[in-house]
Design brief:
This protein has eleven helices and 25 strands. With about 425 residues, the protein is α/β, with parallel strands linked by helices. The chain has two domains: about 170 residues, FAD/NAD(P)-binding domain; about 140 residues, 3-Layer(bba) Sandwich (FAD/NAD(P)-binding domain), CATH 3.50.50. A five-stranded parallel sheet has the order 5-2-1-9-21, with no helix packed on it. Helix 2 crosses helix 9, helix 4 packs antiparallel against helix 5 and helix 10 runs antiparallel to helix 11. The protein is globular and about 70 Å long.
C-alpha cells in the first residue's frame, strides 16, 4: 500500500519528523492549527496516518443513519485539507507503537518520529454485551450508519409482507442501549425517521405496533447533562412515545429477541449498542499509565510521562474536570481544543518556548432532540425547543472542516425538512 510514500518516509532527512496517528477531530484539527504556524526555520516534516482517507464528522452519524444527511457530506478527504502540500498522508492501519524506540509499525511500513501525536480515537465498548446468536448494530463508522439505515428500511419492507403478528412486532421494535448523548440523539432521530417518513410509505402497517425503546443503566438519561435540561429531554422522549427504561440493561441478545434485566423478553430484530467507548486497542496496549478505559494519563501539557515529544489527545487522553475531579467525557469539542494546545506545545518544543497547559472547560451543553427540538445551555443561560436545535445545527455545521461540507450539510437539513428524509434502501 502506497509504496512510494512509505519509501519516501525512509529517506534520510535532517528535518524533525512530526507523526500524527489518526484522522479524526484530534488529528485533523492539529493539522489545521500546526500547518499555518510552521515556517522554514522550524525545519519540520509532518506525516499523518489514518486507516481511512477521509475525516469523518462523527457527531452527525445519527443523521446519516436516519436519512437526513447524505453519507459523503460528513466525510472530507484528508488530502484536500488546507495546506495539503505541506504534509504527507499515509492511508494505513497502525499495528503497534514503540515509544522507547520512537517507531510506529503500520501496514504501509515502519515510521520513525521526533514528535508523536496519538489521536487514534476510540472504539465502541462492547464489554457489557452478551449475545446468543443475535446481531447488534453500532454507530462508529460511516459503514455503520449506512448499514443501520438500510436495516431500518429493510425491516419495514419485511413487515409489510409478514403475516405472523409476533414476527411483525419484532421487526417493528427498535431498541437503543445507552442513554448518553449518542443514544438519546439516535433514538429520537429513529423515531422521527420512522413516524415522519417511513410510516407514510407503509400505510397498511399499523403505527400502534411500532415500538421504540431506550435502555439506560443510570437513573436518568445523559447523566452529565444539567438537571433541568435532562428533565426536559426526558419529557420530550416520553411525549414522542419512546419507551425509556431507566436503571435497566440488556442482559442477553438473541436472534429475534432480547432479555432485559434477566426477566423481561422483548421480541426485536434491531438492537443498537451505544453505552460508551473504550480506548483504541493500539493505545490500550502501550506500557504507560492509563485509566480503566485504556486512555493515557497525560500531563497538563497533554504529554505522555517519560516520553518527551509524545502527546495524546482526544479519546486517547485521560483529562479531568478541575471542578469535579471526574474524567473528562469523550467529545468532539474536547478533541478540537486539545488539538490546538498540542499544536502550540509542539511549536514551543521546536522553538524552545514555554508550553501551554490544557484546561478543561465545558461552558455550554447542547443536545438535539429531533428535527425541531433540542436543549442548549451556556453557563446559566438555557434554551429549549426549536432555537436550541438551531444552535445545535449551526454549531456542528461550523465545526465541519471545509465550506463545501458545511453547505452540503445545511442544504441536506433544509431539503429533508421540506421533502422528507431519504428512504432508499441502497445495498
Amino acid at each position: 500500500m502506497l509504496p512510494e510514500t512509505a519509501a519516501h518516509s525512509q529517506q534520510p532527512s535532517s528535518a524533525r519528523k512530526i507523526l500524527i496517528l489518526g484522522g479524526g477531530f484530534g488529528g485533523t484539527y492539529l493539522l489545521r492549527h500546526l500547518l499555518p504556524s510552521l515556517n522554514r526555520k522550524d525545519n519540520a516534516e509532518i506525516t499523518i496516518v489514518s486507516d481511512e482517507n477521509y475525516f469523518l464528522f462523527l457527531p452527525l452519524l445519527h443523521e446519516v443513519a436516519t436519512g437526513a444527511i447524505e453519507p459523503r457530506h460528513v466525510a472530507c478527504p484528508i488530502r484536500s485539507l488546507p495546506f495539503s502540500d505541506r504534509f504527507k498522508f499515509i492511508r494505513a492501519v497502525v499495528d503497534s507503537v514503540s515509544l522507547s524506540d520512537r517507531r510506529v509499525s503500520t501496514t504501509a511500513g515502519t515510521l520513525d518520529y521526533d514528535y508523536l501525536v496519538l489521536a487514534l480515537g476510540s472504539v465502541t465498548d462492547m464489554s457489557g454485551l452478551t449475545s446468543n446468536g443475535g446481531s447488534v448494530f453500532t454507530l462508529k463508522t460511516l459503514h455503520d450508519a449506512r448499514y443501520l439505515k438500510n436495516h431500518i428500511i429493510s425491516v419495514f419492507e419485511q413487515a409489510s409482507v409478514e403475516k405472523d403478528a409476533e414476527r411483525r412486532q419484532g421487526l417493528l421494535t427498535f431498541i437503543v442501549t445507552g442513554g448518553g448523548y449518542i443514544g438519546v440523539q439516535l433514538v429520537v432521530a429513529i423515531r422521527d425517521f420512522v413516524f415522519q417518513d417511513l410510516r407514510n410509505l407503509y400505510r397498511h402497517i399499523d403505527p400502534a405496533i411500532i415500538k421504540i425503546m431506550l435502555i439506560e443503566t443510570d437513573r436518568k438519561i445523559i447523566p452529565r447533562l444539567h438537571t433541568k435540561l435532562g428533565a426536559y429531554a426526558m419529557r420530550q422522549l416520553q411525549l414522542m412515545g419512546i419507551d425509556v427504561r431507566l436503571k435497566s440493561r440488556v442482559t442477553m441478545v438473541h436472534e429475534d429477541h432480547v432479555e432485559i434485566n434477566n426477566t423481561q423478553i422483548v421480541p426485536t430484530n434491531t438492537v443498537i449498542w451505544t453505552p460508551g467507548v473504550a480506548a483504541n486497542p493500539v493505545i490500550a496496549r502501550l506500557d504507560v499509565k492509563k485509566d480503566s478505559l485504556g486512555r493515557i494519563l497525560v500531563s497538563d501539557h497533554l504529554g505522555v510521562a517519560g516520553f518527551p515529544g509524545v502527546y495524546a489527545i482526544g479519546d486517547c487522553a485521560h483529562c479531568e474536570d478541575p471542578k469535579t475531579g471526574q474524567p473528562m467525557p469523550p467529545s468532539a469539542h474536547a478533541g478540537v481544543r486539545q488539538a490546538k494546545v498540542a499544536a502550540h506545545n509542539i511549536l514551543a518544543d521546536l522553538r524552545g518556548k514555554d508550553k501551554r497547559p490544557y484546561i478543561y472547560s465545558n461552558p455550554f451543553e447542547v443536545v438535539s432532540l429531533g428535527s425541531s427540538r433540542g436543549v442548549f445551555s451556556f453557563h446559566r443561560f438555557r434554551l429549549y425547543g426549536f432555537w436550541a436545535r438551531f444552535i445545535w445545527m449551526a454549531g456542528y455545521s461550523l465545526l465541519s472542516t471545509k465550506a463545501y461540507n458545511r453547505i452540503r450539510i445545511v442544504t441536506d437539513w433544509l431539503l429533508s425538512m421540506v421533502f422528507g428524509r431519504d428512504t432508499i434502501l441502497l445495498k
